[in-house]
Amino acid sequence: MSLKGIELQIAIPKTFDAGKMAEQKQQMIQAGQDHAGVLTEKEQAKIRETVIKSDRSAKTDSDSKNGDSEQTPREQSRQKKNNKESEMAHPYKGAFVDFTG
Predict the structure, then answer these.
(1) Which of 28, 36, 46, 92 has the fewest CB atoms within 10 Å, i.e. the most exposed one?
(2) Is residue 71 a contact partner of residue 79, using CB atoms and an 8 Å limit?
(3) 62: how many CB neighbours lie within 10 A of its CB?
C-alpha cells in the first residue's frame, strides 16, 4: 500500500497530534500513580504513629474488677459497654456456611 503526496500531507501532522495525545495520557497516568503513592505513604506514616488499642490490658482490668463488688457507676457503665460490644454480631461475617458446590 503506497501513499500519495496528498495523503502524506494529512497523515504526517495527524501522527504528531496522536503522539502528543499519547504522551499527555502517559503523563496523566504517571501523575495519578505518583499522587496515589504519596497518599499511601502519608497513610502508612499515620498508621505507624497512632497508638494501637490493647485488648489484653482491658481484659486484665475487667478480670480484676470482677472480684470487687465496689465499682463506681462509671466503671459499671464501661463494663456494660464492653459486654455489649463483645456480644454484637460481626458486621460482615455471616453465621451460615454453604457446603454445596
Answers:
(1) 92
(2) yes
(3) 14
Decide: helix, strand or coil at residue 61: helix
Contact 66, 83 (CB under 8 A): no
Query: What cell numbers appear for 7 in the block?
Result: 495523503
pLDDT tens for 38-79 read 999 999 999 888 876 655 555 555 555 555 556 677 888 888
- Cα distance between residue 78 and residue 72, in whole Å: 10
Helices and strands (H, E) in the chain, number of each type: 3, 0
- pLDDT value at position 34? 96
